[in-house]
Amino acid sequence: MTDHRQFNPQDLLPHWLLTGALLTLLIAANIACHIWPEQIRLHIDAEQRLLLKSIFYAVTIILFPLVKLLRHILLRLNQTMPGKKTARRRYFQTVTTCLLTVSWIGGFGVLMFILGDDYNTLSIFSLLAGLGIFLHKPDIGEYRSIYAALILQNTDLRT
Question: What is the pTM of this model?
Fold first, then answer.
Protein backbone atom coordinates (compact mmCIF):
# COMPACT_ATOMS: atom_id res chain seq x y z
CA MET A 1 0.00 0.00 0.00
CA THR A 2 2.01 2.96 1.20
CA ASP A 3 5.59 3.01 2.40
CA HIS A 4 6.11 2.83 6.14
CA ARG A 5 9.21 4.93 6.41
CA GLN A 6 9.34 7.85 8.79
CA PHE A 7 7.55 11.05 7.86
CA ASN A 8 9.99 13.48 6.27
CA PRO A 9 9.22 17.17 5.64
CA GLN A 10 11.59 16.99 2.63
CA ASP A 11 8.88 14.94 0.91
CA LEU A 12 7.31 18.25 -0.10
CA LEU A 13 10.35 19.41 -2.09
CA PRO A 14 8.81 18.55 -5.52
CA HIS A 15 5.62 20.33 -4.47
CA TRP A 16 7.55 23.50 -3.65
CA LEU A 17 9.58 23.22 -6.86
CA LEU A 18 6.33 23.14 -8.83
CA THR A 19 5.05 26.18 -6.93
CA GLY A 20 8.30 28.03 -7.62
CA ALA A 21 8.23 27.07 -11.30
CA LEU A 22 4.69 28.40 -11.73
CA LEU A 23 5.57 31.67 -9.98
CA THR A 24 8.69 31.99 -12.15
CA LEU A 25 6.62 31.40 -15.28
CA LEU A 26 4.12 34.06 -14.19
CA ILE A 27 6.90 36.57 -13.51
CA ALA A 28 8.67 35.73 -16.79
CA ALA A 29 5.44 36.28 -18.76
CA ASN A 30 4.98 39.67 -17.11
CA ILE A 31 8.58 40.66 -17.80
CA ALA A 32 8.18 39.65 -21.45
CA CYS A 33 5.04 41.77 -21.71
CA HIS A 34 6.92 44.76 -20.30
CA ILE A 35 10.08 44.33 -22.39
CA TRP A 36 8.49 43.57 -25.77
CA PRO A 37 4.99 45.08 -25.61
CA GLU A 38 4.77 46.26 -29.21
CA GLN A 39 6.20 43.07 -30.69
CA ILE A 40 3.61 40.81 -29.04
CA ARG A 41 0.47 42.97 -29.10
CA LEU A 42 -2.21 42.53 -31.76
CA HIS A 43 -4.28 45.64 -30.93
CA ILE A 44 -7.72 44.15 -31.45
CA ASP A 45 -10.67 46.57 -31.16
CA ALA A 46 -11.71 47.37 -27.58
CA GLU A 47 -15.32 46.32 -28.17
CA GLN A 48 -14.20 42.85 -29.20
CA ARG A 49 -11.91 42.53 -26.19
CA LEU A 50 -14.59 43.60 -23.73
CA LEU A 51 -16.64 40.42 -24.08
CA LEU A 52 -13.57 38.23 -23.74
CA LYS A 53 -12.32 40.18 -20.73
CA SER A 54 -15.74 39.89 -19.06
CA ILE A 55 -15.74 36.13 -19.63
CA PHE A 56 -12.23 35.83 -18.18
CA TYR A 57 -13.23 37.84 -15.09
CA ALA A 58 -16.30 35.62 -14.60
CA VAL A 59 -14.22 32.46 -14.97
CA THR A 60 -11.68 33.83 -12.49
CA ILE A 61 -14.39 34.62 -9.94
CA ILE A 62 -15.79 31.10 -10.33
CA LEU A 63 -12.37 29.41 -10.25
CA PHE A 64 -11.38 30.52 -6.75
CA PRO A 65 -14.17 28.78 -4.79
CA LEU A 66 -14.25 25.91 -7.29
CA VAL A 67 -10.55 25.14 -6.80
CA LYS A 68 -10.99 25.40 -3.02
CA LEU A 69 -13.80 22.82 -3.23
CA LEU A 70 -11.74 20.66 -5.58
CA ARG A 71 -8.78 20.70 -3.19
CA HIS A 72 -11.02 19.74 -0.26
CA ILE A 73 -12.50 16.82 -2.22
CA LEU A 74 -9.12 15.62 -3.44
CA LEU A 75 -7.65 15.77 0.05
CA ARG A 76 -10.49 13.64 1.44
CA LEU A 77 -10.12 11.17 -1.42
CA ASN A 78 -6.38 10.98 -0.76
CA GLN A 79 -7.09 10.05 2.85
CA THR A 80 -9.77 7.45 2.17
CA MET A 81 -9.18 5.81 -1.19
CA PRO A 82 -7.34 2.50 -1.11
CA GLY A 83 -4.45 2.00 -3.46
CA LYS A 84 -0.71 1.66 -3.74
CA LYS A 85 0.11 5.34 -4.21
CA THR A 86 2.17 6.92 -1.47
CA ALA A 87 1.01 9.96 0.48
CA ARG A 88 3.67 12.00 -1.29
CA ARG A 89 2.39 11.05 -4.74
CA ARG A 90 -1.26 11.54 -3.80
CA TYR A 91 -0.60 14.98 -2.35
CA PHE A 92 1.56 15.98 -5.33
CA GLN A 93 -1.33 15.22 -7.68
CA THR A 94 -3.67 17.33 -5.55
CA VAL A 95 -1.27 20.28 -5.39
CA THR A 96 -0.49 20.02 -9.11
CA THR A 97 -4.16 19.99 -10.08
CA CYS A 98 -4.98 23.03 -7.94
CA LEU A 99 -1.92 25.07 -8.88
CA LEU A 100 -2.26 24.44 -12.60
CA THR A 101 -5.93 25.38 -12.46
CA VAL A 102 -5.32 28.74 -10.76
CA SER A 103 -2.33 29.41 -13.02
CA TRP A 104 -4.72 29.73 -15.95
CA ILE A 105 -5.76 33.07 -14.45
CA GLY A 106 -2.32 34.52 -15.19
CA GLY A 107 -2.66 33.25 -18.74
CA PHE A 108 -5.89 35.20 -19.09
CA GLY A 109 -4.00 38.42 -18.31
CA VAL A 110 -1.20 37.67 -20.76
CA LEU A 111 -3.73 36.78 -23.47
CA MET A 112 -5.68 40.00 -22.91
CA PHE A 113 -2.42 41.97 -23.06
CA ILE A 114 -1.48 40.27 -26.34
CA LEU A 115 -4.92 41.11 -27.72
CA GLY A 116 -4.25 44.77 -26.96
CA ASP A 117 -5.50 45.45 -23.44
CA ASP A 118 -3.48 47.64 -21.10
CA TYR A 119 -1.06 46.85 -18.27
CA ASN A 120 -3.85 47.23 -15.71
CA THR A 121 -5.60 44.07 -16.92
CA LEU A 122 -2.28 42.20 -17.06
CA SER A 123 -1.52 43.25 -13.49
CA ILE A 124 -4.94 42.35 -12.14
CA PHE A 125 -4.95 38.85 -13.61
CA SER A 126 -1.30 38.29 -12.65
CA LEU A 127 -1.90 39.34 -9.05
CA LEU A 128 -4.98 37.12 -8.87
CA ALA A 129 -2.94 34.19 -10.23
CA GLY A 130 -0.23 34.91 -7.67
CA LEU A 131 -2.87 34.99 -4.94
CA GLY A 132 -4.25 31.66 -6.16
CA ILE A 133 -0.79 30.10 -6.14
CA PHE A 134 -0.23 31.42 -2.61
CA LEU A 135 -3.57 30.08 -1.39
CA HIS A 136 -2.96 26.63 -2.87
CA LYS A 137 0.70 26.23 -2.02
CA PRO A 138 1.77 22.97 -0.34
CA ASP A 139 0.72 22.66 3.29
CA ILE A 140 2.61 20.35 5.63
CA GLY A 141 -0.52 19.81 7.75
CA GLU A 142 -2.50 18.50 4.77
CA TYR A 143 0.35 16.20 3.81
CA ARG A 144 0.63 14.89 7.37
CA SER A 145 -3.09 14.17 7.48
CA ILE A 146 -2.87 12.08 4.29
CA TYR A 147 0.24 10.32 5.56
CA ALA A 148 -1.39 9.51 8.91
CA ALA A 149 -4.63 8.33 7.27
CA LEU A 150 -2.74 5.94 4.99
CA ILE A 151 -0.71 4.55 7.90
CA LEU A 152 -3.93 4.02 9.87
CA GLN A 153 -5.65 2.47 6.84
CA ASN A 154 -2.78 0.01 6.35
CA THR A 155 -2.82 -0.88 10.05
CA ASP A 156 -6.58 -1.57 9.90
CA LEU A 157 -6.17 -3.80 6.86
CA ARG A 158 -3.63 -6.04 8.60
CA THR A 159 -5.72 -6.62 11.75
Answer: 0.88
- Looking at residue 6, what is its pLDDT? 64
Contact 43, 116 (CB under 8 A): yes
Helices (H), the chain: 13-35, 37-40, 46-80, 87-114, 119-135, 140-158
Contact 139, 94 (CB under 8 A): no
The string of pLDDT tens digits covering residues 40-82 is: 999 899 899 999 999 999 999 999 999 999 999 999 999 999 8
Phi/psi class of residue 83: alpha, beta or left (left: φ > 0; alpha: ψ in -120 to 50)?
left
